[in-house]
User: What shape does this take?
Amino acid sequence: MSDQGIGAAVRRKEDARFLTGKGRYTDDIHRPGELWAHFVRSPLAHATIAGIDTEAARSAPGVVVVLTGKQLAEDGVGGLPCGWQIHSRDGSPMAEPAHPPLAAERVRFVGELVAIVVAKSRAEARAGAQLVEVDYDPLPVVASLAAATADGATLVHDGAAGNICFDWEIGDRAATDAAFAGAEHVVSLDLVNQRLIPNAMEPRAALAEYDAASDHTTLYTTSQNPHLIRLLLGAFVMGIPEHKLRVVAPDVGGGFGSKICLYAEEVVVTWAARRLGRPVRWTAERSESFQADAHGRDHLTHAELALDGDGRFLGLKVDTRANLGAYLSTFGSAVPTYLYATLFAGCYTTPAIYANVKGVFTHTAPVDAYRGAGRPEAAFVLERLVDLAARETGIDRVEIRRQNFITEFPYASPVALQYDAGDYGGTLDLALQLADWDGFPGRRDAARTRGRLRGIGISTFVEACGIAPSALAGALGARAGLYESGQVRVHPTGSVTVFTGTHSHGQGHETTFAQLVADHLGVDIDAVEVVHGDTDKSAFGMGTYGSRSLAVGGSAIYLAMEKVIEKGRKVAAHLMEASPADVEFESGTFRVAGTDKTKSLGEVALAAYVPHNYPEDLEPGLDETAFYDPKNFTYPAGAHVVEVEIDPETGVVELVGVACADDVGTVVNPMIVAGQMHGGLAQGIGQALLEHGVYDESGQLLTGTYMNYAMPRAADFPFFKLGDHTTPCTHNPLGVKGVGEVGSIGVPPAVINAVVDALADLGVRHIDMPATPEKVWRLIQEAAQDQAQAGANA
Ligand code: MCN
Assistant: This one.
């Protein structure tokens, strides 16, 4: 390993600009003649729009134009498309109600766009928006899964009976029923996976510009996948040919999945800029982010696990209602189906699995991917059930997992996935060692003497990253391919520019992708620049989500480097008067095998661009592109152990230990991998203990500010103990798997299992997330009352 290549803990190249305030975010970009937009948003969750009076707003100081859904429709701007089609178990396609970017007739969630006010300044746009009079006729609201699926519930969309978008299934129902019929034990659980609200540091923003001379439109936007936004916006919504539309996602301050969707604001700002012939900009206020960024999770689930007398898992049944919000977001239908239920084997050999998922419309913000996207929900169901199974059968929590682990690979799970590699026992052993599992009883007894309840919890899990291959994704309903492009341009003096279709918004690609080049081409890392986020620069790409960037995007870059080496070999052979077959390449040097004749990559590049002495049949230049469509997902796996102490007087849960052993394949940069783990763990622990997006019955968002949506802070965490246990991915050229979501997937059940362990002696069987002090305190009080009652009855 070099000090820059694969495996080196190189400091992030991009941090120099971020830490010195030189990052260039959408809101930092200004165009001459630009105008500001402010949106009028619905204050009601469900209402018909009887009329919109824009008169006063139009004559307000500085206001240039006020536009509504009526004009949008007149201009032929289409609705927001969904990227993944799900079929119900009866074979019918999912309900896909229209999703107009500006509501014209009916509003369906608080925060939905109704009009855009464009003015000379931000303040004037905001003040103008206050003057837009919308005449709403309120309608009944279904703001929760329970309300939306109750008999006779008000319909969110007339075309979706019972508010059901799809009624989807996976697995073998008959085999699963048979497994349950022959079971010794059945463990069942009803649980909630609560709604989360993503909170990227940078709120969403958009700036659109139209150049009439060239008929070119440019949209700067806070996106995780600019090429996809160009495709959807251009081809499906606005009818702009892609060669006339440029989408730039410059520095983006975090996304966590919430910036993969095509949003109504992006469409409306682009439309307004084209209509006016002047640049139009918008930056969300934080309260707009709370209301209108796509939310995450929000499931109600009933699950059952069947076991034989020895604790072997025989069958798993899961029934989930998944909240989709008021409209289908770009990947809203894929998250609770193919990204969720395909993970129900986890790391276990359960032979029969059946899951039914109903996607439900409600009068709430659309729900889409949030870090982990489906996989945390699956791991939570499974790991809570497995823990309960251990308690209810009396089998040790570690042993019940170990005896059900998949140990032979490749492994075909009963829910569609084909695992290629893993060592679940190895990660478990390492996590137990890091956590000092065996020393726990001593620590618990010591805590008791301090009047505290101490618990330890474990979760062992598998995730699937880098959805692939495109043909399979297409067969399952994806309306896009899931490959990636990589271009490697070696300049005449040997420095390198890499163009990728992925997008880095905190993941450190500018460093790790440069490490790939340092490793494979032997170029100094400082002589490598990674370019992303601009559809005019990178050939094409599917962007960044699903922890796909290294496994898919990095592999594309690797393949492009292979092409560079192949061409360079021919040039070097010519320069050294040898046969290409005799030329080897290593660490930046071409060598005639078995001799001391060498040419550096820089010398070869110079010859390629100044081809005075050059092979006749070879094109000049050293610039290669590869598209990589993976053969399979990658399957990172891990074991997370969490230790908590609970103060019975207050119900406060203190996290006293977090130990994680993860297998993310070959590690490119251990420091970045640890950073990704820290971030994911923070979000997973936030879900387990603090965060909850809550609507009241009328569809008002009660958690619309940081005063009532509890975000985790550094002081909420102990030091994380991290361990790495690698089994390389077998089907990509780098052997890598994803790491970006591991923490948020693995840790929530470990936290809740630890909380339940601490309260188990009181008879507590389950607690829903977030395990807030109030919830824990109530459980303790109820348990005390039950025990007192039992004593009185005795
Ligand atoms: N890496 C590595 N070795 C590995 C695996 C990954 O060195 N074996 C490095 C990669 O090269 C990359 C980083 O770790 O620099 C993350 O890689 P990967 O797992 O491929 O994930 P992506 O880059 O595709 O990022 C997506 C993932 C997701 S899905 C969410 S959500 C998320 C996350 O990353 N959102 C983030 N991490 C985030 N981090 C920040 N700061 N901000 C976000 O919005």
Notes: The mean pLDDT is 97.
